[in-house]
Protein 1
Amino acid sequence: MTPDQWIALVAGVVGGALRVGVPFLFVSLGECLTEKSGRINLGLEGVLVLSAMSAFGGAYLSGSPWVGVLAGAVAGGLLASLHGMLCSLPRVNDVATGIALMLLGTGLAFYFGKPLIQPQAPQIPAIELGKWSGSSAVRAALQVNMLLPVGLVLAVLLWWGFKRTRYGLLVRMAGDSANAARALGYSVGGIRLAATTLGGMIAGLGGASLTLFYPGSWNEGISSGQGLIAVALVIFARWSPLRCIGAAALFGGAGAIGPALQSVGISWGYHLFNTVPYVLTLLILVLTCRPGSVAQGSPGELSSNR
């Protein structure tokens, strides 16, 4: 390849990490908050798809992408709160309920989203980071979602909240020892419901970025399993909001390798490179989820038999 092609390739991967990684960032932050409270939400795939459809529909009907972003967050929070309420019932399993909610969320999105497949909705404005370059390919690759700074600030706030605030301490206590939280007079169910709902709203911002920035349209296969990958991302990040930033960038860059190669004229193995995020997910789960061992940083209640 020529030097210009190498520059375009690197810019494409970096731009992809910034662009494709945004949904990963929001969904992993939402799942991190949920799991910190001692609850796992495998229904985030349904949350992501439903919020993506709701965001696109809200933007299309209102003419404002920010109304769409709000609609996506609300839709994600509502579906996640349903998961939280069901899991609060006696003898209800988090994993089974999450799978059911995933099917419900995707089903609702597919049903109500049928009229939205063809129309175009207003898009979230881009931050131009490539103005310094004379290459149109580099400038296009470095167009960044305006929600990315929101995600970065949110990650810092969650990290700070878990470390320094009373509410963060309560969430961690509910996740590490439900009995200790109850002994101090706190409602574990209420804490987990609030954390699950807020986690769903955060994940909903990831859904909004899918349909209102990249790829910027609504279709039934838009999430490509990113909601499920988020569970592996949180494990990889050791339940740290700050590490979720790096994990999201890694998976975003991995997902951008195929398109970046195609942009410089290399089409061989294009579909093979598109499988890199899923291979990374399997590798992370194999290396971190060993029988008889508990992953470092895991909330205590997640490792107990519930």
Protein 2
Amino acid sequence: MSQPTIAIVGAGHAGVEAAFALAAAGAAVTLFSNEPGLPYFRPRLIAVAFGQAAPDAIAIKPEAAYAKAGITLRHEPATEVDVQARTVNGQVFDGLIVSPGSHPFVPPFKGERTRAHTLWTLADALAIREAALPGKAITVIGGGVLGLEAALRAAEAGLRVTVIESAPFLAGGVLGDCEATLRRALEAKGIALSVGVGVAEITAEGLTLADGRTIADDLLLCSTGARPNGPAAGTEGYLKTGGDLSLAPCVYAAGDPAEPPASRPTCSVRRAQLMGQLAAKNLLAELAGQPTQPWADPRLPLFMKVGDVEFHTLGDVRSPGLLEKCVEETPPFIRKTILRRGDQVVGLRWVGTRAGFADWEKQLA
């Protein structure tokens, strides 16, 4: 066929990856973005918010790369998407990739809920950057990877930091016996931790915890997960794809909305990139009358590193009944453990270093 026209809804990591793959194959690509400026690395917004990175330093690709590849970047929300007709905002395309990303989830807290900042867009980061002055007190609600990174970067910027996590563990519970080591490292940076107690109410001066304690702050950041965006979404915003990420003839999905509803969006850059690559590959294959390939969820690490505070996990670190064995420890901030199921090594937990992680990774079942 002649040069196919492809629309990509969403200029996040999945969408940009798909756009360049399709353009390299000769397609005429239109990339729809609902934010001004260039698509950027969303996880790096945290560094922008606390002054460790400039806004123009986190772009996924320079502006010239889009023009050179022949990609039309349209700063226009895709408000009307018809996957059956392959139309976006009334324009018909030969193929379509839907990768609209996610949005931050803020629980329905009582009280002054509007005080809670989220950190999901460049506009969010710049608003926090203006308010996050040295000596100010910031409370971070959420002790996941992004919440902990925000806490560390805020402390590095000279703020007084408190982290509130309603679950009885940090980092989603992936660290097991290694969590105590991470907590020591966080507290050594001056970060106050309150774990296992939820928020009862947000007040004008701070917040009240479920156990009655009050915390005063100047700035409140909510890092409590994400939910997938539409359009063409099914239950809870997830896209009901085939095994090859297909939604309809010559229409594919990629990124967080294509994740299975059994788990919340991982917001993994690498997973999004791989999905974008496969969606592009399968769309080109279908247009050429060739078979498509199924999506196979990759085994990817969950990690965080800010300065000398870091952790790395890989494999099965959640299943009950696994035997955890410490293979090396250098108190107070370094601990390495492996998890076994019988004689097989199935998971790794490293805190305070990555040294030796790759060697053990080769032994994972």
